[in-house]
Amino acid sequence: MHPLLKIQNLSYQYPTAPKKALDDLSFEIKSGDFIGLLGPNGAGKTTLLSILASLIDPLKGQLVLSEPHPKSWIALAPQEIALYPSLTAFENLKFFAEIGRVESRRVNEKVKECLEFVGLYAQRDMKSGKFSGGMKRRLNIAVALVTSPKLLMLDEPTVGVDPHSRHLILQALNELNSRGTTLLYSSHYMEEVEKFCRTLLLLDHGKILFQGSMNEFKNSKQKQMSLEEHFIEWTGKDLRDV
Amino acid sequence: MRQIKSLIWKEWLLLARDRQATAVLFLMPMIFIFILSIALQDVFSDKSNSKVTLQIISEKESKEFADSLKSKLIQMPQIDVIDENSSISAKARLKVTSETAKAFSKLSRSNFSAAQKPSQSMEIWLDPTLNPAYRWFVKVSLSNALYQLVLEKAQGNKDETNLKDPLAFINDEGIPKTEKMNLADFLKEEKVEAGRIVPTSLQQNVPGWSLFAMFFIAIPLASGILKERQDGTIKRLLTLPVTKTTLILGKLIPYVTVNLLQFVSMLLIGLYVIPLCTELKFQLGNDSQFLIPVTLICALTATSYGIFISSVSQSVEQASALSAGLVICMAALGGIMVPLFAMPLFMQEIAKISPLYWGHQAYLDVLVREVPFSVIAPKLGVLLAFALVLLSIGKRRFQWL
Predict the structure, then answer these.
(1) What is the model's pTM?
(2) B241 near A CB under 8 A
(3) A54, B238: Cβ pair inside 8 Å?
(4) Three-state DSSP class for B126?
């Protein structure tokens, strides 16, 4: 797997925050990988995703990209349901496809493909505001897919989702990864990360605590411990009320 | 271009599906125009107690006559004679030429014994937005002043043959006259065309409430931006290959278009619907093409106001309350809710801090006063300055994420 992007000595501090949100981070994302991004609340996960999605500029450090114009090949499915509730599923996808510069003649085809991929094609003419939580989450992911990104970043995509939708989302992401899309998956659900991710990046207080394969992580403390117990061991037992 | 088209289409869909916003933007001004035009009919035909500013413009040869006329007019309680060079914009202007002065002098020498018409008339210009009662009052006051001058001359000539019965000197309109001569003939109102409609409450309310509704665009505009920020759609858009300028244009263009639509629909209602139900008439003025730049600049100012509100509000609720509250205050101050002429002079000066005042005055210039574009342009300049200030504050304070 060749590196899709390299992060070198990345730091970021919010203007009013007393501490750095990211502190001298360095790692690389390999093409085709399925990376689990773990960390307690306030660890810096969303800040990292925001920098990679070109939403904010790092204070220090740099991103070495395998291709120019990152906005055309890196997509983010944000934690929020970032959709227009009074537009239908089809209209939402079409709009973001056009803004994402999907070729005019391919827009409808691409929208259809994405809706089918998340199991919402039958509901394409329904306003997204009328969708259930799980359907909204699926559409939220479909919007991120409509530009055919090489790197898809997902910020807690299964929060508040019913088991059926969660299953569908995870299966769809797995399939996407098997087709070659690189995934950076931020979640608090350890079992999801354990089941699907091959590589793990553990952040806390803006620093990398661990980076390596899932197996390496599981062997990093005591072998018989669950992933969640490993996580607690690495990050400590203090509550993180951010 | 394709991105801007998509952004505009998206805004249109969102607005069209927001029934409350559509009602606020289109239904509310229609109702206001309808109700208030009928309700304010009497205000426009009734008199109030404030003064009418009158300016006398004379020539070197007519100065003596103008001064004697002025000395009489100063005594009239509701006429405020202002200096010839005053910067205050007069509601009435009287032009006294040397020919008029000579004609008057000739008339008084004739001892009023023969039926005659003056060879020259004095031109009065009356602001078309002036209350009809005031228009009448100005004419009566001028005739009275002339009558007093005539009387003085007659007494000086010991000729009172035509001045016996005071009641005989008042015509049906209440304008003094001598037995054979109507002094009203001596006054000629400028720019009064046959069939021209004297400004009605509809002339005030159509542009007034259209402007009010146009500024109400700030509610859906600012709320929409804040909703997009809250639900993360702006964030999502910023991860895509689109510039911030395109995103701003994609917001401004559809709302400016909605503003234009609002004005056109209110205009059509004023022209065709309200006259069907009432006796009120609405007219476009001679230079209705000036409505295009006026409406465009008003729309730009209104949308800039929406961007400004979105930049100073923290939530949708705050944006809605703030934008509506401020528009109501600006409308009350700017002569939309209460006609400017019904306000005391100091309030008429304070009105100038409201952008709605400048927009409304620019509309009245086109629809009622029928002035050349050079007179309207400075008002549009002030409106543009408002738009630029609001936009630059909005740009500086706007938080994308």
Answers:
(1) 0.73
(2) yes
(3) yes
(4) strand
